Amino acid sequence: MNGSSPRVVLVTGGAQGIGAALVRRFAAAGDRVVIADTDADEGTRLAEATGGLFVRTDVARLDHNRAAVAAAAERFGGLDVVCLNAGMSGGTSLGDDFDPERYRQGMSVNLDGVVYGANAALPQLKARGGGAIVITSSLAGVQPSADVYYSAAKHALIGLTRSLALLTHQDGITVNAVCPGFVDTRLVAPHRDAVAALGLAITDADHVARAVEIVLSAGDTGRAWQVQAGQPVAPLDFPDVSASRLDG
Predict the structure, then answer these.
(1) What is the pTM of this model?
(2) Contact in structure between 63 and 38 (CB atoms under 8 Å)
(3) What is the C-alpha separation between 65 and 3, in angstroms, rounded?
(4) Chain-centroid distance, C-alpha 62
(5) What's the pLDDT tens digit per position in 132-160?
(6) Of 63, 71, 184, 223, whose CA is between 20 and 30 Å from 195?
(7) Which of 39, 53, 41 is nearest to 6 (CA)?
(8) pLDDT at residue 1, as a whole number
(9) Residues with Cβ < 8 Å from 178, sequence gap 6 or more?
(10) Going by C-beta distance under 8 Å and a sequence separation of 6 or more, which residues neighbour residue 106?
């Protein structure tokens, strides 16, 4: 990937799916990878296969995020790239089907986990003289979705990405989001037939990992990047809206 290797990379939700594809791709490039996940069996196996380090991490807890960052610094001497990738479906709907506990769990992982991960990582990235944060959002973060609370969290991640980039630019830290469409992971697996029936394409997890390579190589910050099967990886445009001024 872009820059000199080996870099130290932390991947949350790194035991399966997109996260595991990221771990394999970074490791193949010669980077040192920390896998943060709740799945100890898969995470340990992947760490052994790639020469990485597994740290059991519940991203919905700030102390767990800090522990994963500390483990990266202790084992590998610092931190250069953070992929805040852990996520889950919203899993609840409206009215009588609304489950407040499931809602809170989804927001804790999909939104709070990224906020906590970024805050935990920033001191180490600053100490390194700069680095990169890549957040896994979704196309559901830039357009409506029937999974309303998942979509709400993923929309929030786009705002977080664009706003956080304003604050980290002076420290040489880039912040970007990737927005995959349907990806062949366990999140999509229960809906694969329905997606196919709609004529929609499903890509694989390694396509998203390749997209992260492109994002890191571009060196941009504050961008949201579309990642879909059969389409080039490209930043999305947002309207340029200025606040009204008293002088006109």
Answers:
(1) 0.93
(2) no
(3) 25
(4) 16
(5) 999 999 999 999 998 999 999 999 999 99
(6) 223
(7) 53
(8) 42
(9) 134, 135, 136, 137, 208, 211, 212, 215, 224, 225, 227
(10) 88, 89, 90, 91, 92, 149, 150, 153
Residue 207: how many other CB atoms lie within 10 Å: 19
Long-range (24+ apart) CB contacts under 8 A made by 94-97 are 94/148
Catalytic residue, chosen from 103, 116, 149, 150, is 150
Which residue do the tokens 């996520």 mark? Answer: 87
Is 103 known to be catalytic? no
Q: Where does the pLDDT of residue 169 fall: very low under 50, low under 70, confident under 90, or very high at 90 and above?
A: very high
In the chain, alpha helices (H): 17-28, 40-50, 62-76, 100-107, 113-127, 148-168, 192-197, 205-218
Handedness of CA 73, 133, 36, 7 (dihedral sign): negative
State the chain's mean pLDDT as an integer.
93
Provide the pLDDT confidence category of residue 195 given band limits of 50, 70 and 90. low
Q: Domains (ranges, CATH) in the chain? A: 8-231 (3.40.50.720)
Residues 140 and 119 sit within 8 Å (Cβ to Cβ):
no
Residue 246, exposed/middle/buried by CB under 10 A (0-12, 13-18, 19+)? exposed
